[in-house]
Design a protein that fits this description.
It is built from 24 helices and 23 strands. By secondary structure, it is an alpha+beta fold. The chain folds into five domains: about 180 residues, Beta-Lactamase, CATH 3.30.450; about 140 residues, Beta-Lactamase; about 160 residues, 3-Layer(aba) Sandwich (Rossmann fold); about 80 residues, Orthogonal Bundle (Helicase, Ruva Protein, domain 3), CATH 1.10.8; about 70 residues, Arc Repressor Mutant, subunit A (Orthogonal Bundle), CATH 1.10.10. The longest helix has about 45 residues.
Length: about 700
């Protein structure tokens, strides 16, 4: 017997005490097992030693600590394990039976197997003779592992030595068991803390993307897993949603679907129970991720039409009962959060829908503010609608300006309908449509005998409009001689009929409209400056249709409805291509031109449901506004000597430019004035008026 075995009782007790205190040290479990083995080998005088613990399935002995192994032997020991079924050796016999084995002579002991010889050769344990002790680590009848120690020479093991070794093994078993209990409790506490934090995070949000992230991040921590995903199935649409925590997507390309059908996710969906799959079990499913064979799937019971599953996968190890229970509790809370988020989303959608309906009603209110089908969603038109509402409350004069066809008369009628005079007459007159002499009699009326054909008294329109609203359209065309009399009427609030001597008081709210630049006319002397200031108290400038593109389609659809009723048709709208053409066209005739084009299309084109780009007239399709480059040096040679008459020089150049542009447009259109006007982006009326102006200028400048 080796002299190392002659130890004192005090030495043994101190050894037992030291390993007992290890349970309270802040060391890792593997480090504590190493300390236990070091104490055993050093105190008992052995040469080498190893501690192996059984895995969770109690099928393998896994090395946890070695003593006096060289680096190569240590690497081999920790990389390999002994399978209780396949490997027959001293250590597996002890692990299976729970009985210790004392080996005094390796040459003669019949219990030595081929596996033992391989082990001794691999780790160079002795040559011809060696002795060993291999004892079970167990708590009552529950075997948790073995401790084996070798001595380099043949040795006798007296009963008191064996009892001491067994006592040490039992004491070490208690320490290891307590360590496991402490570790399990630490892990349980850690998982409960994670659960508490996760539930708090879930309760703080209604965002589905955030919930996905919270569930996956915390499930990975609870399950000590490496991969995770959330799988949601819409049972009505048979579509699946995948969330990996980093991205959320519909599996429209069926990337995951084939794998799902053969996985534990499908089994969990069908059974609505937690399913666990490990590499040691018979594989009746296919892993979702290659290289992550240990899987768990937890059903997520969401209300209504959705089914869900939390999936975890990891490379090594399994899932404890506590992990499964904690995941189950966590997913129950997650399901509540998903239900709340879905309900919140629906309420938000309903709220947005109500808000949208209110906005639509508000837009309708803006559109119909004038009560005369004034369609407009653009900011410019909405501002005008609100201006109408404001100015309608007062009797102040309003000057409505805008290009031909923009709807100046509708604006005027809207002001009247919103005013306190809405129950009284609305009278309008177009100053450009009535010659100057007749315009005066139409406005002021006349007494019998005032002129040759005046056989009886006639009330003028101003008198007829008393207490109501009067619109003078195209006020810029009013004859200068009438302008003076009209200004006097505005200032005195009374009229005198032609041929009469009596002043007749009137109470009229005046509105004026024009498509001309009255400032320029005042500058030219063709419109009285004092009258301009008298009528331009509140100006309303209507933008052309080309400057409010967003109003084109609402107007177009409005006219479709109008002509569907008139022509007994059922046109629904426009194709995308047709809409692009309508938005691109500059609409020189503005709203009036748009209405006429829609009417023409619906009368002459064979349309079933939608108006296509082919249905739109060719001149609209090909029209594109462009500004030609003009070489002004060829139009006039300016004198190098100054001073010059600026106004007459500019007027002359302007007339020459106009003449060239109009001449070219008529040449391209072969004399067709309507076509020429469309080429220039103006109305036919404007073209004719410009031609007459040029003709008058030539006559006025002609020498006798």
């Amino acid at each position: 017997m080796s002299p190392d075995f002659f130890y004192s009782t005090g030495r043994i007790l101190r050894c037992f005490y030291r390993i007992s205190t290890l349970i309270t040290t802040p060391l890792r479990d593997d480090d504590i097992l190493q300390k236990i083995l070091d104490e055993a080998v050093d105190t008992m005088g052995f040469h080498m030693g190893v501690v192996c613990l059984l895995d969770e399935k109690k099928e393998k002995l896994v090395t946890k600590a070695v003593k006096n192994y060289n680096p190569e032997e240590t690497k081999i020991a920790f990389s390999e394990s002994l399978n209780l079924k396949r490997h027959d050796c001293l250590m597996t016999k002890v692990a299976k039976t729970g009985n210790y084995i004392v080996l005094e002579n390796s040459r003669t002991d019949p219990r030595i197997t081929l596996t033992d010889h391989k082990i001794t050769n691999r780790y160079k344990i002795g040559d011809d003779f060696y002795s060993a002790f291999c004892g079970p680590l167990k708590i009552k009848d529950d075997i948790i592992g073995i401790i084996a120690m070798w001595y380099e020479k043949k040795t006798k093991f007296p009963p008191e030595v064996v009892n001491t070794l067994l006592a040490f093994a039992n004491h070490a078993s208690i320490v290891i068991h307590n360590l496991r209990l402490f570790e399990d409790n630490r892990q349980k506490i850690k998982r409960l803390q994670v659960l508490q934090e996760a539930v708090s995070q879930l309760n703080s949000t209604y965002a589905l993307d955030k919930i996905h992230e919270i569930v996956i991040d915390n499930a990975l921590r609870i399950g000590d897993a490496d991969r995770a995903l959330m799988y949601f199935l819409d049972t009505e649409k048979n579509k699946c949603l995948i969330s990996t925590g980093e991205q959320v997507f519909l599996d429209e390309e069926n990337i995951y679907y084939p794998k799902i059908g053969q996985s534990i996710i499908k089994k969990t969906l069908d059974t609505e129970t937690i399913i666990v799959q490990t590499p040691l079990q018979d594989q009746d499913t296919t892993p979702i991720f290659n290289g992550y064979p240990s899987e768990i799937a937890v059903p997520l019971k969401i209300k209504d039409k959705f089914k869900g599953v939390l999936y975890l996968g990891k490379k090594h190890g399994g899932y404890s009962k506590d992990q499964k229970d904690t995941l189950d509790i966590f997913i129950i809370n997650a399901a509540v959060s998903y239900d709340s988020a879905i309900m919140h989303s629906r309420l938000s959608i309903e709220a947005k829908s109500l808000k949208t309906e209110v906005e639509i009603l508000k837009e309708k209110e803006n559109e119909l503010l004038g009560f005369h089908n004034i369609i407009g969603n653009s900011k410019k038109m909405v501002d005008i609608f609100h201006m109408i509402s404001d100015v309608a409350k007062h009797d102040t004069s309003v000057l409505i300006q805008g290009e031909s066809g923009t709807g100046k008369e509708l604006i005027a009628r809207a002001i009247h309908r919103q005013s306190a005079r809405k129950s009284k007459r609305f009278v309008e007159i177009n100053c450009a449509a009535i010659p100057g002499t007749l315009l005066e009699s139409e406005l002021f009326g006349y007494e019998a005998g005032a002129f040759t054909d005046a056989r009886k008294r006639k009330l003028g329109l101003l008198e007829h409009a008393n207490e109501g609203t009067f619109l003078l359209d195209e006020i810029g065309e009013m004859n200068p001689s009438i302008q003076a009399k009209f200004l006097r009427m505005l200032e005195d609030n009374h009229i005198r009929r032609l041929g009469g001597i009596q002043d007749i008081p009137i109470d009229v709210r005046f509105l004026f409209s024009t498509n001309k630049d009255l400032w320029h006319m005042v500058d030219e002397g063709t419109f009285r400056e004092d009258l301009f200031y008298r009528i331009n108290v509140i100006p309303i400038i209507i933008p052309p249709l080309k400057d409010r593109i967003e109003d084109i389609m609402p107007l177009a659809y409005h006219y479709i409805e109008e002509f569907n009723t008139k022509l007994n048709k059922s046109v629904k709208g426009f194709t995308t291509g047709a809409e692009k053409i309508l938005k691109r066209y500059p609409w020189p005739g503005n709203v009036r031109e748009l209405r006429n084009i829609i009417e023409r299309i619906m009368i002459f084109q064979s349309i079933s449901t939608l108006i296509t780009s082919d249905n739109i007239p060719a001149e609209i399709r090909v029209a594109a506004p462009r500004t030609p480059e003009i070489d002004t040096s060829k139009l006039s040679s300016l004198s190098s000597s100054y001073p010059i008459d600026y106004r007459s020089t500019i007027a002359g150049l302007t007339n020459k430019i106009k003449k060239e542009i109009l001449k070219k447009a008529l040449q391209v259109s072969r004399g067709n004035k309507a076509a020429a006007a469309r080429q220039l982006g103006i109305s036919r009326y404007t073209l004719i008026r410009e031609l007459k102006k040029l003709e008058n200028n030539l006559l006025n400048n002609a020498t006798p």
